[in-house]
Amino acid sequence: MSQSTAASSTETATTDTETNASETADETPADVDTTDLLTLDVPQYLQMSGDVQLFDQIFSAVGTVTDKARLGIKDSGIAIRAADRQGYAMVDLRVAGSSFSSFDAATGTLGVDVGRVRDALSIGNAGDLVQFALDAASSTLEINIDGITRTIELDPVESLRYPVEMPDIDIPATVHLSPDDMSLGLSAADMLGDRFDLIVDSEAGEMRFVASGDTDSMTYRRAKTDLIAFEPADVEVKLDSSLVRSANAGLPDGTNRVLHIGDEVPLVLKSEFPDADGAMQFVIAPKLPN
Known about the structure:
Elements: H1 6-12, H2 34-37, E1 46-51, H3 52-63, E2 68-74, E3 77-83, E4 89-96, E5 102-105, E6 108-113, H4 114-121, E7 129-135, E8 140-145, E9 148-153, E10 173-177, H5 179-190, E11 195-201, E12 206-212, E13 217-223, E14 229-231, E15 235-240, H6 241-250, E16 257-261, E17 267-272, E18 278-284
Antiparallel strand pairs: 1-5, 1-7, 2-3, 2-6, 3-4, 4-18, 7-8, 8-9, 10-14, 10-16, 11-12, 11-15, 12-13, 16-17, 17-18
Helix pairs in contact: 3-4, 5-6
C-alpha cells in the first residue's frame, strides 16, 4: 500500500490562506502572511498572554504532525505551518494578536519544541492565564502559569525543515458538517480498515464515507439536509483513516468542520478557533490505489 508523497501534496494542495471556516461561509481570518513569516530571524521581543485553552489548541494541532515547528510572529498575530516527515499531512494555522489577553511582538521566526511547550501548558486548566516571554539574548522562551515558570530553549530556525509551500488548485466540492457527524463517519470507517473513500454525489445530494473490510462494507450517508452547508460536485478520494482521524482530533472541540474535496487530490479539513480570530486547516494527501 502506498501513499502520495510530500511533493504531490504540495503540488495539489491549497491553503486557502485568505479564508476562514464558519458555519455558513469562509471569512477573512487573522491577517498573517504565513509564507514569508516562517523564514525570518528571531524577533527582538515577544510578550503575549491568554487563556491556556487557546494555546493548548494551537500546539496540540501542530503536535499531530510534528514535534518541532517554526512559529512565525508579527505585530498582528502568529502563524504556523508544518508537515509530517513523509509529507502526508500538513497543518496551517493563524491567530490574530487581538485574540490574546495581551500581545506585544516584533516580526520574526522562532524554532519551537512543540512537546516541551505542551508539557509547560499541561499544568494549567481552561480559564488559567498563561504568559509567554522571549529572551532573545539567551534564545529561550519563558512560559508562566500561576507563578510556575518553565524556561524552554529554542531551536535554531535553520535546523528546522523549510515550511512547505502549497499552491492553490481548484477543489470543486465543499461540505460543512458538525464535529459529531465527522467523528461518527471516521469511527465507522476505521472499524473496517486503514483506508476509506470520501464521496460527494451531486445527483443524490449527499456525501458518503465508504469503507470495506475482508467481508463487510460500510456506508455513512449525510444528505444535504443533514449538512450545515453543501457545495456539491461529483468527486471521490481515497484517504488514510488514521491521518484524517488525527487531523480531526487536532481541530478545536465543538467547532464545525469544513471539507474541501476533489478527485484524488489532497483533502483540506479546516475549522475556526472558538472565541478567537483565527483558523486552522489540515491538508491530507490521498491514498494511491493498491
